[in-house]
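Minutes, methods subgroup
Present: GH (chair), OT, SY

1. OT presented the first of two proteins processed in the latest run. Sequence and structure tokens recorded below as shown on screen.
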Amino acid sequence: MMPSLLAAEQEPLNQVISRLSTQLSVLLERVQPESALRKESIGVLSIAVSVLPQLSKLMDTSMAVASGRVPCVYLCAPSLTAGWSTVLALVAQGLPRRTLAGPTSRGYNEGVAWAVARIEQTCPALGEDTGIEPLTCLIARVAAQLQFLLDQVPTPPDDWPGGAVFMYARFSIQGLARNMAEALYNVFGLVEPVTNPGYLPPLQWRALLEELRQPEGAPLDKEQAELHYHYREGVRWTCAKYRDTFRNLSEPARYPLRALGN
């Protein structure tokens, strides 16, 4: 899933963004409106539904290119194939990393990386893939690819035509990719339940995650204790994210719309 450089004359970045925006907009038509949860919704799902058609139109014109805002050469979005490995990878992609320099931040990030690798090794899918990709996973894949491309377009100035559309799109798509990857909308019944065993965690996933998050032993001195603590925090946070995702994927909607009285 490594990105690669692609010359604009082969497929201009604005056209790629326009195409993915249209594809994602069509997919979101299959999601129940987030406004069904409350009378006025300002969540990233609602924003994405509203702004994606505008983004597609904006990028489908020559204005974005003529203004010099869209790069002529860019990194292609990583190729994300449907499957359980991509489900795990997209959750990992949304995990927060510490950007500050220092041993504690490094220890935390190493804990995250270790836990991600162990989960990939010890948590295979529940069963054979039936070939039907769940809607939440499909949307997460497309949104992640679109987010990767949008991040390569420099932030437009306030007076740039279409700048507000672009900024709303960048904000909402990032959140949408994360929420869909973690199957958050399945909790409310906004997205159809996952029935394909190839996209569900193994039955023993709780025990596997609990085993990973348990401390392996106390270090000997104060410096080691601090580093060990931050490392374990990275492990625990990672396990918590996968725990929530696996629960959202495998359990019925906990707060379905009909139970909200709307």
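2. SY then presented the second protein from the same run.
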Amino acid sequence: MNCIEPDGLIYDQRHCKGMAYGLRDSSKTGCGWVACYNLLHLLGYPYTPQQVCKTMAAWLPFWGLIGTHVLPLYLWIRKHTPLRICLLGNYTPIRLKQCKGGIVWYFTGKGFHFVAFSPTQKGEFHFYNAIYGNKNLCCTLPQFRKKYCQFPFMVVFSVPK
């Protein structure tokens, strides 16, 4: 599959073109399964993108015409790893700074988007598939929210240490 980079992560869902996700193409509405795959890969789970896409597609409302819904995504990922949920505004709670990684759900101005993230050594977070193709997007969660989220808050799912 040409959307996987040598490090095993997906940085650009547009390269998943041709992979069905419900009735739509993953390049258009696959950010939910891509975020789940990236997070599970970061945590060391041995799932392939095809496995995650196929099993998550069974949870899609409206056969995937509107993409992944936040509640089924939360329930699906929760079956695999402990997960906390919070709304994030202008600060990052300590527990998020100490997490293993997570998924952010936010409004881009055009639609809702899911992105996986992992902590860095500098107290920031590395974001995957947020800006398609950008492999080095690192910043704090409030900086990410301020720059990329068009609402005053975003939903953060995190895996505790």
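Chair's summary of item 2: The mean pLDDT is 91.
Next meeting: continue with the remaining queue.
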